[in-house]
Amino acid sequence: MKTIEVADAVAMIPDGASVMIGGFMSVGSPERVIDELVRQGKRNLTVIANDTAMPGRGIGKLVSAGAISRMVASHIGLNPETQKQMIDGRMQVDLVPQGTLIERIRAGGYGLGGVFTPTGVGTVVEDGKQRIEIDGRTFLVEKAMRADFALVHAFLADYIGNLAYALTARNFNPVIAMAADKVIASAENIVPVGVIPPDQVVTPAPIVDYLVAHE
After folding, report:
1. Cβ-based burial of 137 (10 A; exposed 0-12, middle 13-18, buried ≥19)
2. 3-class DSSP assignment, residue 208
3. Which of 21, 62, 74, 124 has the most CB atoms less than 10 A away?
4. Is residue 87 predicted with pLDDT exceeding 90?
5. Using an 8 Å Cβ cutoff, are 46 and 72 in contact?
6. Which pLDDT band, with edges at 50, 70 and 90, does 214 fall under?
7. pLDDT tens column, 129-146
8. Chain centroid to CA 143
């Protein structure tokens, strides 16, 4: 793990990269990293996340900046800018049921090929997907999902990169950290090794590639 300035961390993310971003309506999202993505003018990103937050918050900043060409999320209902870009054809939006989305990401992190789920059977969700029968029930085969980068945000990080999260701000963060080639973490507080009790470490240091330094 390396400690890195936010500008240098974002500079590693090329235009066209696939990026998983933690957060639920921006709670637990890495705001400083998102702001820097906007400042550096990144374009044509594929963003995989629970939602697109709202204008001016979290991933909503990337939407407003026109940085996203494809969005994979469970809902976009509170961001009218996302809806407008989708309708105008400026952004491809793949809506995935929330449980299916996180399990596909978890499967990618655990080295699995995908998951079987009954969610979406008999609806437009199953279009183009393989169906499988198990014990008389029909399931859809949902492929595992990975990304080039995961941008996660924690409440605590120690000097070697162990991460602990606060309450619901944990959300997607620890799961996406397992499913990306490079993990860039930011944290509210960076503390000496040993301050975070071992049993409270959620994302262990070997998973984290870069920790964004405080300003």
Report:
1. exposed
2. coil
3. 21
4. yes
5. yes
6. confident
7. 999 999 999 999 999 999
8. 17
Q: Write out the E strands in 85-179.
A: 92-95, 114-117, 131-134, 137-143, 147-158, 163-164
The span from the CA of 1 to the CA of 9, in Å, is: 12
Give me 31's structure tokens.
């705001």
- Taking the C-alpha atoms of 112, 117, 122 and 128 in order, what is their torsion angle to the nearest 10 degrees? -10
**Residue 20 CB: number of other CB atoms within 10 A?**
29
Cβ atoms within 10 A of the Cβ of 120, count? 17
Instruction: Tell me the sheet residues that pair with 74.
Output: none
What is the full DSSP assignment across 46-110? EEESSB---TTSTHHHHHHTT-EEEEEESB-TT-HHHHHHHHHTSSEEEE--HHHHHHHHHHHHT
List, as own/partner pairs, every contact residues 5-10 make where C-beta atoms lie below 8 angstroms and the sequence separation is at least 24, other chains included.
Answer: 5/212, 5/213, 6/32, 6/33, 6/36, 6/186, 6/212, 6/213, 6/215, 7/36, 7/40, 9/33, 9/36, 9/184, 9/210, 9/212, 10/36, 10/37, 10/40, 10/42
Q: How far, in Å, CA of 71 to CA of 52, rounded?
A: 8
pLDDT computed for residue 125 by the predictor? 87
Please tell me the distance from the alpha carbon of residue 29 to that of residue 24, in angstroms, as a whole number: 7
Contact, 144 vs 96, CB < 8 A? no
